[in-house]
Write a structure and sequence with these properties.
Layout (H helix, E strand, L loop, with lengths): L1 E7 L6 H18 L6 E6 L6 H12 L5 E11 L2 H13 L4 E6 L7 H5 L3 E4 L7 H20 L7
Parallel strand pairs: 1-2, 1-4, 3-4, 3-5
Length: 156
């Protein structure tokens, strides 16, 4: 199952970029034998300042055809890491070929795009900067693959 991180904004070099790259590489290595990955990062940027609706249009264009859509949203479901791992495995096992995670811009995800999602995940009741959410999602993807592989990375 291919993983697509479809995000608003372009991340320049720096610590967040380095962390995301590292976790994506780890996920790709660990997930390959499990039928997970590769993971790709697709960045869109609304240079005209059209707001959430314009961002949603750009994100829709970036989504792979037929992909299962999962949005990162404060109203989404809060999950444990093992539950997230099982969710990924369930999607993989039911034939999902492309899974797209959508991270909105500073104002979030347009309600129309959010309503199209198959699933919504929240990293808690706090609102996180969208650049940090990328890091957190990348790490959780690696952690999920590690859990499914039975590696000691995740400790209970």
């Amino acid at each position: 199952m291919k993983i697509h991180l479809c995000v608003v904004g372009r991340l320049r070099g720096g610590p967040e970029h380095d962390l995301i790259s590292d976790y994506i590489k780890r996920f790709d290595r660990t997930g390959r034998a499990l039928g997970l990955g590769p993971a790709t990062l697709i960045e869109v940027e609304d240079k005209k300042g059209g707001g959430m609706a314009a961002e949603a249009a750009l994100l829709r264009k970036a989504l792979p055809k037929g992909a299962r859509l999962c949005v990162l949203d404060e109203r989404g479901q809060v999950m444990t890491s093992p539950d997230f791992a099982q969710k990924l495995a369930g999607w993989r096992d039911t034939g999902t070929q492309n899974l797209a995670f959508v991270i909105g811009g500073a104002d979030g995800i347009d309600p129309s795009l959010r309503s199209e999602a198959d699933f919504a995940i929240s990293f808690g009741k706090m609102v996180w900067p969208h650049m940090l959410v990328r890091v957190m999602l990348s790490e959780q993807l690696y952690r999920a693959a590690s859990i499914l592989a039975g590696s000691p990375y995740h400790r209970v």
